[in-house]
Amino acid sequence: MARFPKNDIMSLVGDKPRWDLAESFGPSLHLGDLLDASCLASLGDIELGYGTAEGDQRLRKAIADLHGVAPDDVVVTVGGMHALFLVAFILCDRGDEAVMTSPAFPLARNALDVVGAQLRILRLSFDGAYGLDLAELAGQLSERTRLVCLASPQNPSGVVIPPSTVRDIVALMEERCPQAHLLLDETYREAAYGHDPAIASAVGLSSKVISCASLSKCHGAPGLRLGWAITRDRALRDQLVIGKFNTVISCSPVDEALARRVLAQSERIIGERRLHLAEGLARTAAFVRTNAQFVEWVRPDAGALCCLRLKPAVFDDGAVRRFFDMLAGEGVRVANGAWFGEDARVFRLGFGLLSIADLKVALEGLSAALAGATREVA
Predict the structure, then answer these.
(1) Are the CB atoms for 192 and 302 separated by under 8 Å?
(2) Can you give the pTM of this predicted structure?
(3) Does the pLDDT value for residue 28 go beyond 50?
(4) For the chain, which domains are there?
(5) Through-space distance between the first and last CA atoms of the chain, rounded to whole angstroms
(6) Are the CB atoms for 377 and 297 separated by under 8 Å?
(7) Max CA-CA distance within the chain?
(8) Following CA atoms 265, 269, 271, 274 in sequence, which dihedral angle do they give, to the nearest 10 degrees?
(9) Would the pLDDT of 60 be above 50?
(10) Is pLDDT above 70 for 340?
(11) Smallest Cα–Cα separation from 132: which of 109, 105, 163, 161?
(12) How far is CA 107 from CA 110, 111, 112, in A?
């Protein structure tokens, strides 16, 4: 009867720890951050009927403007995962091949598994800084490939696939599997650090490129459950609209109205969050330097997350288990890499959710667990 694997790394499932370093997003917005008196009055005029399957036209235009596409290229979905599922369901018949990386966000793999796609896994390594090798990708492509599913920045590492590499991937797919689409999860694209520029969306490279994202990570509004899929493939876009109607019918018109408010204030919201992320990244970098005898990391390019590894020369299997046990005793949680298809010595650390003061305390607890686990080995 159990169809879904249990996990203990997210506060949405199970008990919430005191200091949560497992989450991959920043502090949540409050309604008061978005609403003024005039907006409150306008919300009272919203009719609580069905929305449209494609999504509110004004919201689609706001999303389109951020990506340099037309509003009719955008389909609004119930979060980014709904977009991932619809794309997988539409493009992959049972037995068709789909390519994705490992490690990866496991729910993305679940979407491909549930539609019966034959998965071909492109392995990314901690030692290789989670870089994508084009020659290895070429070896996974075939005439049966219908979908290549990637993320940039990646989850769990926060590593960006360089735009030049994405262009090479598109060219490679045109040669090896011209019927296939490239689905690029750009959920963390705008979560740059400080005043660093965000990378441009790749959706304009080809009609075979699909971009998906949501308001959950960069904007701090996961409670709105608003995401989108963007494609310039007319036939696919029409199928996405029909698929949405046949799964959820439409999004909430209240959520869509609030999403428009978020995007109208996007420059302010994301600007403030980028400064917070930059400070969190700096604190994490200092933590890694201080604990260099215990851990190493791959510095992220964007996002509120990164991958650290317990040094294999210091942590045997027993010490790894002690580390996680001691971490729980400190009231701190990180995301075990095994959930993403990584080695258990690797863990995802989220530095965007907590305040800087709380992050400092959480990292101190992490340091204590590192030292305690290795002391027992000695």
Answers:
(1) yes
(2) 0.93
(3) yes
(4) 19-29+268-377 (3.90.1150.10), 48-265 (3.40.640.10)
(5) 44
(6) no
(7) 68
(8) -150
(9) yes
(10) yes
(11) 161
(12) 5, 6, 9
